[in-house]
TrEMBL record:
One of its GO terms (cellular component) is plasma membrane. The chain crosses the membrane at residues 7-29, 49-67, 74-92, 122-141, 153-171. This is Membrane protein. Keywords: Cell membrane, Membrane, Transmembrane, Transmembrane helix. It is a multi-pass membrane protein. Residues 246-530 form the Sulfatase N-terminal domain. The keyword Transmembrane applies. Pathway: Cell wall biogenesis; lipoteichoic acid biosynthesis. InterPro entries: Alkaline_phosphatase_core_sf (IPR017850), OpgB/LTA_synthase_biosynth (IPR050448), Sulfatase_N (IPR000917). It is found in: Cell membrane. Its main location: membrane. Pfam families: Sulfatase. It comes from Tetragenococcus osmophilus.
């Protein structure tokens, strides 16, 4: 009788722990609002809440049976849920995005977490993690000495929970019973993952982003259809006197944007003065960024491949980690440059494993990848922990000066990466109208230094004997603005950064206030500079004429009007569909277009 009561109490405690952990995840997702978490669980979405509890119970049983101990399993489960919850809260605060399954790959980026959390909290968390893992390993060792009956029960529960998790991981298959149960009441919102998680709960939203294909197959996809597109977009013959290829430098500047465009924010001074001096003498304007406060790798993916995130399945949240490393060939500006005799170099003054860049750059075709450990110039500014833009540009200049062959260099900067507070002792700017003043003021100093470094870099390029083309852009706005300030600005204001194209021989048209998307950079640069294009770039140039910029729920038409829905004529839709077919062919299909020279 006592044993039965003991099992009943243990079972009740486990059930309460599962419910509480699910509430904790909802609490973190909803900005630490107890009311929203409780209403979600017991008023608005009760059925989905308890389906999530079932998933968490399977996870708990797996941890406990693996360790052979309820205490060790509960400790590991608690650590995991706490980590996921706090990461969700922080990501929602900075980027208005929840944690996705693929974000779990970031768990090894200890240096990044130390910078975000601060040394003190980071050390405490590490000590707790080490203690829990040590307990888990100790109990795992002891589990081998359990009695035969307990060992058998443990192995049965381990097998059942393991296969349960495998089945759950196939959540996006139509026949999956858990997905069907969710579908009874779930309202999936593919175009907004934030709302998707709000409507289905953290666990439901997390499962929705598991195991997904890059794109849905378009109708009429076939080898014949791809061949027809290839014939349609053959570039016209160009008569160019200059046979040599100019150097091409891509600079993706971390969080570089113009705060002056935001409503409700008042700043003193002009932190973008040097940048504007260059922009006014070049081809420049605004770039439409997919995300606010983050998503660097996605913007980089678009800029290098000229493929749009808007066409991907919404669950394909990070092609760099979920798609590209699995591919053998991916045509890009990098591979095109190599075919034309360029040396190709990627430079990122940080850790090589961020977003699996080491693997991604190999697939894209870079000859070499320089990171913080292999760069020759690693100077920083004052208290800023990141390598400065000035040092990164010097690394680029060294490559251009030492090698006579044409160079394609892709630089991803780090100087202006968060966190911002405390970076500089002397700040030349003041901010009013915001609660995060000190953060923003340090950010303004950051982009001031960035603009100065860019101006110095472009001046030195003019002294080189070879023509050099530069595409410079900010990947996204920094995630430092309060909810109040964000509410005062439209979606488009929070998703536009700066871009410019510079020619050391001043051969580009001087046009300002252009609006573009990063996947247009390469074809636009080739057209502006008079370089030989490809059938793929011809397709993109035709698309750019009708849709100068677009991301999900943000479409700019040829008259510079913004729309939330795609609205095209029959002929315009045909061009859009051609682009979609080619993108599917490469990322999910048979890659017929690689075989017929569409990217050459």
């Amino acid at each position: 009788m006592y044993k039965k009561f003991q099992y009943f109490v243990i079972g009740l405690l486990i059930l309460c722990g599962i419910i509480f952990s699910n509430l904790f995840l909802q609490w973190c997702q909803n900005g630490l609002s107890v009311d929203l978490a409780m209403n979600f669980a017991f008023s608005w979405h009760t059925e989905k809440f308890f389906l999530a509890c079932l998933v968490l119970l399977v996870l708990f049983i797996f941890f406990a049976s693996l360790a052979g101990s309820l205490i060790a399993g509960a400790s590991l489960y608690t650590l995991f849920i706490t980590g996921i919850g706090l990461a969700t809260y922080m990501k929602m605060e900075f980027r208005q995005e929840p944690v996705y399954p693929d974000d779990l790959n970031m768990i090894t980026q200890l240096g990044f977490f130390k910078e975000v959390l601060g040394t003190g909290p980071f050390v405490v968390i590490c000590i707790i993690m080490i203690a829990v893992i040590a307990l888990f390993l100790y109990q795992l060792f002891r589990s081998f000495f359990l009695t035969k009956n307990k060992q058998m029960a443990r192995l049965i529960m381990l097998a059942l929970s393991f296969f349960g998790l495998v089945y759950i991981s196939h959540f996006n298959e139509e026949s999956n019973l858990l997905r069907r149960a969710y579908n009874r009441t779930a309202l999936w919102i593919p175009y907004s993952q934030e709302m998707n998680y709000y409507n289905t709960g953290f666990v439901g939203g997390f499962l929705y982003n598991l195991r997904v294909e890059a794109m849905q197959e378009p109708s009429h996809y076939s080898e014949e259809a791809i061949d027809e597109i290839t014939e349609k977009y053959q570039p016209q013959e160009t008569s160019t006197e200059e046979s040599e290829e100019p150097n091409i430098v891509y600079v993706m500047s971390e969080s570089f944007s113009n705060p002056e465009h935001l409503q409700g924010l008042s700043i003193t001074g002009n932190p973008l003065k040097e940048y504007k001096d260059i922009a006014q003498q070049s081809y420049s304007g605004k770039m439409l960024s997919q995300n606010y406060g983050g998503g660097t790798a996605n913007i980089e993916f678009e800029a290098l491949t000229s493929f749009s995130m808007e066409l991907l399945n919404p669950q394909m949240t990070s092609p760099y980690t979920m798609l590209v490393p699995k591919m053998d060939r991916l045509p890009s500006l990098v591979s095109l440059s190599k075919e034309r005799g360029y040396d190709t170099t990627a430079i990122h003054p940080y850790d090589t494993s961020m977003y699996k860049r080491q693997d991604v750059y190999s697939v894209l075709g870079f000859n070499q990848f320089l990171d913080q450990d292999s760069m020759d110039y690693t100077q920083t500014i004052e208290n800023n922990p990141y390598i400065s833009d000035e040092a990164a540009y010097q690394q680029v200049l060294d490559l251009l000066q030492k090698d006579s062959s044409p160079q394609f260099v892709h630089l991803v900067t780090m100087q202006t990466h968060m966190p911002y507070e405390g970076k500089y002792d002397n700040v030349d700017y003041q901010v009013t109208g915001e609660e995060n003043n000190r953060n923003i003021e340090n950010y303004l100093q950051d982009i001031d230094y960035s603009g100065q470094a860019l101006q110095d870099f472009t001046e030195k390029l003019e002294d080189l004997p070879e023509r050099t083309l530069v595409v410079f852009w900010g990947d996204h706005l920094p995630g430092i603005y309060s909810d109040y300030l964000q509410e005062q600005n439209s979606t488009k204001d929070l998703h536009q950064t700066e871009f410019l194209m510079f020619d050391s021989e001043d051969g580009l048209p001087h046009e300002e206030e252009e609006v573009t998307s990063p996947f247009y950079f390469a074809p636009s640069l080739f057209e502006q500079a008079g370089l030989e294009t490809t059938p793929f770039y011809e397709l993109l140039l035709d698309l750019e004429d009708i849709l100068p910029a677009f991301e999900s729920r943000m479409y700019v038409d040829g008259d510079r009007q913004w729309h939330e829905e795609l609205n095209l004529s029959k002929k315009q839709q045909e061009i859009y569909n051609d682009y979609r077919l080619i993108q599917y062919d490469i990322l999910q299909g048979e890659q017929y277009s690689l075989q017929n020279g569409f990217f050459n």
